[in-house]
Amino acid sequence: MEQQNRCISNASRAKNPCDRSAPTLLYTCSSQIASFLSTAPTGECIFRPSSKGPTHLTATLKTPMGGSLLHIDIEEEGKPSPAELGAALWIGRLPKAEKSGDKFDDLDEILAR
Fold this sequence. Notes:
23% of the residues lie in helices and 25% in strands. The protein is an alpha+beta fold.
């Protein structure tokens, strides 16, 4: 119970609380995401704010390998304001490498691929 309260408290103090209208975006911690995905089907994906700061999201994906979870860093680029999703979303982008990684236009495109 203490862990759950800590997660809720941390989520409410998020560095970048904003209204991102994605049905799979949850403002909670990784332990609550793990609990939610434990009963979800393989392939289910949840987006959450990242501990890396306001220009990052984390996608947590339930894999077919024993139900283990894969956490994927998503870097947001071209944010018009802290309350909006970036114009470009990058997965696998390396520091100081302008064209590395895969670029996406929105969260739905990430889910579709």
